[in-house]
Amino acid sequence: MAPLLRVSELQTHYFSFGGSRVVKAVDGVNFTLREGETIGLVGESGCGKTTTCLSVVGLLPPAARIVGGSIEFAGEELTTKRPREMRRVRGRQIAMILQDPMASLNPLFSIYWQVAEPAYHHQGVRGRSLLKRVQDLLQAVRIASPEVRMREYPHQMSGGMRQRVVGAIAMAGGPKLIIADEPTTNLDVTIQAQYLEVLKDIQQESGVALIFVTHNLGIVAKMCDKMAVMYAGKIVEQGTVRDLFRAPKHPYTQALLGSMPKLGSKEPLYAIPGQPPNLARLPSGCAFHPRCAYVMPRCMTQEPEDRRLAPDWTARCWLLDQEAKEKYVSAIA
Amino acid sequence: MVSIIDETNAAAVAVGGREFASVPGRWTKLVRELPVLPLAILVPFILIALFADFIAPYDPTEPIPGAKIFEPPFWMQGGNMHALLGTDFQSRDVLSRLIFGARVSLIVGVTGTVVAGGIGTALGILAAYLGGWVDQVIMRITDAWLALPGLVFAIFLATMVGPSMWNIVIILGLVFWTRYARVIRGEVLSLREREFVKLAEIAGGSRTRVILRHILPNVMNSTMVLASLTIGVVIIAEASLSFLGVGVPPPEPAWGSMLSDGRSMLMVGDWWLTVFPGLGILLVVLATQLLGDWLRVRLDPQLRNL
Amino acid sequence: MSAPLLELQLLQKYFPVSTGVLRRRKTGWVKAVDGVDFAIYPGETLGLIGESGCGKTTTSKLILLQEAPTAGTIRFDGEDIASLKGQELMRYRREVQVVFQDPYSSLSPRMRVGDIIAEPLEIHTDLSRRELAGRVAEVLELVGLQPDLARLFPHEFSGGQRQRIAIARALATNTRLIVLDEAVSALDVSIRAQIMNQLEHLQQTLGVSYLFIGHDLATVAHISDRIAVMYLGQIVELAESLELCAGPLHPYTQALFTAALPSHPDQRHEKLRITGEVPSALNPPSGCRFHPRCPHAMPQCAVEAPVRKEIAPQHTVACHLY
């Protein structure tokens, strides 16, 4: 079966100062997502994960442009669509959940109107069926007494509840794909747990595919089937969550996992030396090499290519290239 | 509750965002990106004002020997090369008076602004940082002061203390400080809550230290922008006072009094007595406004919407 | 066990709430901190964990003398800090410092980093310029930064580096206690690990104590020797870090553990049994404040507030279950 979303060699650059300065925010990203699958897009600030998502939904800021690659969604190519066409895709087929629920909700409209809007516009639902639809959606996100709460306004609700409303709005158009960009960063721990469970339930019941953008590997471990680790605009490793957590192949993935404190263990954390890269001035060769514990001479001059380790597992690192490794080992012997 | 700080600043730096630079580091960058037009106007005027003694052909307060009154500029009929821009009602050289008048306007404009800025900034900081009744008192005074019609008040003060250049400077300072006080107070109110200020307090810093080392340097940007925007206003105010006869006293040349003196001659066509000083005022004020605008956008994002 | 460095006893901070437009009447109290006791010993890290509204920020403000307590005492080296004046107050300010969450607003933008770090020294000591520079260099090295960076301005550093500078400033004056108020929460994961390791190293070298306030259980548990769990203005459980992780006793602590994100996809996790939102501190529930949300609530819980008792060695809980 054809995948729901296929992103191939996506390149999105930011232009500034009249085109003289280019930041390659996304530089050759490939991943696929089948219907009903969840993928976690993981990385630290500036790695390009948010830009990737904005590229998919066509909401890039004016300074950014997709300069290469393709985004195939449900059989259609998104990069060539005109803004009007993208508007039809957004909300109806692809929905987004953002980090700050207060910014996502309009303070002047009631919850009912905001949840109803996608169904009203994209599916033409009206009247009593619209009312029922809103109630069902609010119930799906576990908001108690939806008939009462839907007449309320965003400022009357708590942060966790607002984020759930945002989830309901996302589901209202009946999308095939939801992109959630750090939706729980502003929530308290227990509220976050409740919210993630709600999200997981919705996802399993409706079969919607989910892209979860986060810097927090714990969320990925809990919510996602697959994960793609991004660094400096490229995906450095992607595969199933199980594979990557058990035996990560890329040094950055290993380092990220090692730097997570684990409950109940006082093992020293692995702290990646150095700083995340400045996208305007990337290092030569592999962008991670200045911080890599296993750096070889080749890493400094040549960018590694994607190597397939298993049907669903790729990583880009010279360590995986036997030839390169042998050359190095013999050189230092 | 918690949001992740962008570790790289890459996107911000790259996407042409303004760079939050420090004062010393910013000066070098500033020089490379100076606005040409305002400076093209101001620098010559400043130089003229500085070197007036060397540039002006004649003493501005003395009549030119051998000249007639109301001689037109040299390119007109009846004009003479010995008085390039003509003479006034006392046969004094208009050009020389223009040059020395520039000095007066600029000096009064700048020092008046400095006095206004000094008073206003100090009061604004004290009101916002000390709060409580100090704030109330200062704010009430500001409100009351604003209710006074500026120019009328200036005239009143000028007639009380007698006109002289330095008196005018102080008077103008007293008229214009309120706009600083308001703006600076607002800024300090929010600055006061910033963490680095709290940290200085927690570390045991005295109020004086906190004000001088933490609050003041961070309002200097706004003060400077306000100042550049106010200079024009002060210059016009000085010109108005001189025009009305209560500014810089004769025979010291000032553009405003030149305007006043030459006004009646406009009717008979002797335009050079008013047009040149008027042009001078126009150009200098325009240049300072443009400079101020540029400075505002460049230095302080908070004032961008003023 | 040596004498505690900092001791909070029966600490209360109530904020008055008044309504009415013309005549402000007091209608109630926000009981932000309501009976908090704990102690921090020299050279140890006490973690303070809780969600928003639990009172940990207010507690920190009380310790830093930014607010005065409504009742109760805070003792530093045995002396009540509320009664400190003059020289002794300055001594307290010198020995207790704080590092805040946001690295971008905690450093004065127009001061050079060296001056920022030297400021506490300037306030409290009489060192000459050269001695100050020397101490600044020393402390920069302690936090892993090169001494010649002292002449730069804050904006030239990244977030993680700024936090190091903030830590350096906090250490400059032979500090004995640093309050770390969500100090690593806003940093990227890899940088967070760097800073945490640095903090632990500094503690081992200098013997400074930390009050580590945070909301992420794994982070707090990792760096802390003991952990205090706060809920709605009260400490509901206090135990050694590993002991707490092995067996949390209070239902709220248990909920926090259940809600914590797994560190591995295979990790078994139970369903979260806590419901509802954190109630406001304006009208806290009667009896045990947690009872409306507690899966184990008994009739007694709504009536009588539980007292914190020692259930296991060094492990205290405030719950009627025990």
Task: Chart the SSEs and their pairings.
The complex is a heterotrimer of chains A (333), B (306) and C (322).
Chain A (H helix, E strand, L loop, with lengths): L4 E12 L4 E13 L4 E5 L6 H9 L6 E10 L2 E2 L5 H7 L4 E4 L3 H4 L6 H13 L3 H14 L5 H4 L9 H14 L4 E5 L7 H18 L2 E6 L2 H7 L2 E6 L2 E7 H6 L4 H8 L38 H5 L5 E4 L2 E3 L6 H11 L1
Helix pairs in contact in A: 4-5, 4-7, 5-7, 7-8
Chain B lengths: L9 H5 L8 H10 L3 H15 L1 H4 L38 H37 L1 H16 L2 H12 L3 H27 L3 H8 L4 H37 L11 H12 L5 H28 L7
Helix pairs in contact in B: 3-5, 3-12, 5-6, 5-8, 5-10, 5-12, 6-8, 7-8, 8-10, 9-10, 10-11, 10-12, 11-12
Chain C lengths: L5 E14 L5 E16 L4 E5 L6 H8 L7 E6 L2 E2 L5 H10 E4 L13 H12 L4 H14 L16 H13 L5 E5 L7 H18 L2 E6 L2 H7 L2 E6 L2 E7 H6 L4 H9 L39 H5 L5 E4 L2 E3 L5
Parallel strand pairs in C: 3-8, 3-9, 6-7, 7-8
Antiparallel strand pairs in C: 1-2, 1-4, 4-5, 9-10, 10-12, 11-12
Number of strands of chain B: 0
Helix fraction of chain B, binned, reads 55-70%
Question: What share of residues of chain A is helical?
Answer: 25-40%
How far apart the termini of chain B lie comes to 31 Å
Name given to the CATH homologous superfamily of chain B: MetI-like
- CATH level-four homologous superfamily name of chain A: P-loop containing nucleotide triphosphate hydrolases
Quaternary state reads: heterotrimer
